[in-house]
Task: inverse folding
């Protein structure tokens, strides 16, 4: 159990730092489009989780430490629904309702599509 906890922790640090880097880069380069970092990491994270899930289905021998480290740790640290919610609220509060609705729709439906694509790629 301690190995699984360590794997999740270490991979979570990596995912969190990657999300932080994406947010910092977008804020520095496109401050008016602050929400695109969250959108990007959520869509990429959905693609990754689909790929990993499909890969793990094909390779049941992959140790639980690797599975949990990558899915719970890395992807869990990389993606963030709470930031998505806050970004949407900030857009609504700033009077950008159409953009907020579009952002929410692309996040949810794009995430579902990216997850499906990742899983489908493992079936090719």
Result:
């Amino acid at each position: 159990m301690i190995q699984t906890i360590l794997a999740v922790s270490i991979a979570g640090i990596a995912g969190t730092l990657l999300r932080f880097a994406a947010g910092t880069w977008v804020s520095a380069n496109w401050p008016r489009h602050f929400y695109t970092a969250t959108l990007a990491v959520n869509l990429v994270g959905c693609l990754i989780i689909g790929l990993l899930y499909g890969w793990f289905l094909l390779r049941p021998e992959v140790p639980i430490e690797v599975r949990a480290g990558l899915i719970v740790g890395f992807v869990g640290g990389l993606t963030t629904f709470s930031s998505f919610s806050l970004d949407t609220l900030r857009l609504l509060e700033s009077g950008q309702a159409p953009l907020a609705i579009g952002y929410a729709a692309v996040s949810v439906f794009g995430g579902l599509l990216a997850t499906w694509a990742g899983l489908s790629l493992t079936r090719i």
In short: The chain has a mean pLDDT of 94.
